[in-house]
Write a structure and sequence with these properties.
By secondary structure, the chain is of the alpha/beta class. Helices cover 23% and strands 22% of the residues.
Length: 372
């Protein structure tokens, strides 16, 4: 009997359902599962969990207490350990795990709202399962980890106190379309191309030996011991005199400072140079920011480059009022850099808002803090 396209799809779907958890159970963390299933791991090593940094909310340049957007309050550092787990399934480019076929830990998606077991790949009729019997494997995937900030501060910072403990034959699971800047950042960490396993997210990986370490903390939080360790790994020697940098978002979809031209006319008189990070290679950015002493920028990924600074660098972040987030303030705090911020006005845009500022007021505030 011939089976039409619809019939074939239904058969594929039923086969898929036999391989997926019938009733997925969300658990908070991998550690919760390990504590209940000690026979499912090859080993676990407790790591020193540093004390959480004490955060006090930053103030704007004008001295007002900054009001973060809802959900942006700092969290605490995660309990640190490293474990080799038997027979783990990795299901997508967000690094989501399946434990014992039914257990889905929330921590790789950060929060419950980022995980929907009813959607792909948990309910995908076209996936295949690829079995990895060698290893061990370590995942460089987390929710949002494709993005520049999250790659550095969630993925690379996660390797703190872990990298040196991994076996020499460990393979690192990374996105199939690996950006040049990610390759260079891994190289700076001592991880070579030969150690990478390129994963396209189309199949579920069934991994016999999987090494897991939790993130250092909730995404958006940064901590002194791990951030400074990462900065030391990524920094290069400075080759020029101290530089004052303005990071432009002129090529970004949103949070573009629409009166940037007016601001730059004045900043240039104080020795600032405009930088469009997208126009530079990763190593060019490392070299440029190695000499930075002041960075002014709208909230955006370019501020991640403070990790490359070889000296104390003053950070001035300009917020659009709907995007007042903690990540670069906590990163500056962890690196022990002076940090100031300024909240502009929202400007309608197709994606997230753009913003504008009162240039005269902004420059007056910078002068009051002796930044210019």
């Amino acid at each position: 009997m011939q089976i039409g396209i619809n019939g074939r799809s239904k058969i594929n779907y039923r086969r898929a359902m036999n391989l997926l958890p019938k009733k997925p159970i969300l658990i908070q963390s991998v550690r919760d599962w390990i504590d209940l299933n000690p026979d499912k791991i090859n080993y676990i090593e407790e790591l020193v969990t540093p004390e959480s940094d004490v955060y006090s909310l930053p103030k704007t340049i004008s001295g007002e207490k900054l009001c973060l957007n809802k959900g942006q309050e700092p969290h605490s550092i995660f309990k640190r350990y490293i474990a080799e787990i038997k027979n783990v399934k990795l299901t997508n480019l967000h690094g989501q795990l399946l434990l014992e076929e039914t257990q889905i830990p929330i921590e790789t998606g950060w929060i419950r709202d980022n995980i929907n077991p009813s959607k792909r790949p948990y309910r995908n009729s076209f996936f295949k399962i690829k079995v990895l019997t060698d290893g061990p494997y370590f995942s460089c995937l987390l929710f949002w980890s494709q993005e520049y900030y999250h790659w550095h501060c969630d993925i690379l910072q996660r390797l703190y106190d872990v990298l040196q403990r991994l076996p020499n034959d460990t393979k690192f699971i990374v996105p199939y379309k690996l950006s040049d800047w990610k390759i260079e950042s891994l190289k700076a960490m001592g991880i070579t191309k030969e150690q990478l396993y390129l994963y396209d997210g189309k199949n579920i990986l069934s991994i016999k030996r999987f090494i897991y370490a939790p993130p250092v903390g909730m995404t958006g939080d940064n901590f002194s011991v791990s951030a400074q360790w990462l900065s030391q790994k990524l920094r290069v020697d400075k080759l020029s005199k101290p530089r004052k940098i303005y990071i432009s978002r002129s090529k970004a979809k949103s949070r573009h400072l629409i009166n940037e031209g007016s601001l730059m006319k004045i900043l240039e008189t104080y020795g600032f140079e405009k930088v469009v990070a997208e126009d530079l290679s990763y190593n060019e950015q490392r070299q440029l920011f190695a000499s930075a002493e002041v960075i002014v920028a709208p909230h955006g990924a370019g501020l991640t480059n403070m990790l490359f600074c070889n000296q104390s660098c003053t950070i001035i972040e300009i917020f659009e009022p709907n995007s007042v987030r903690r990540c670069y303030w906590t990163l500056a705090n962890a690196l022990e850099f002076p940090y100031y911020c300024h909240v502009g006005k929202a400007v309608e845009n197709d994606f997230e808002y753009n913003l504008s500022i009162d240039v005269t007021e902004f420059m007056t505030l910078l002068q009051s803090k002796q930044i210019v």
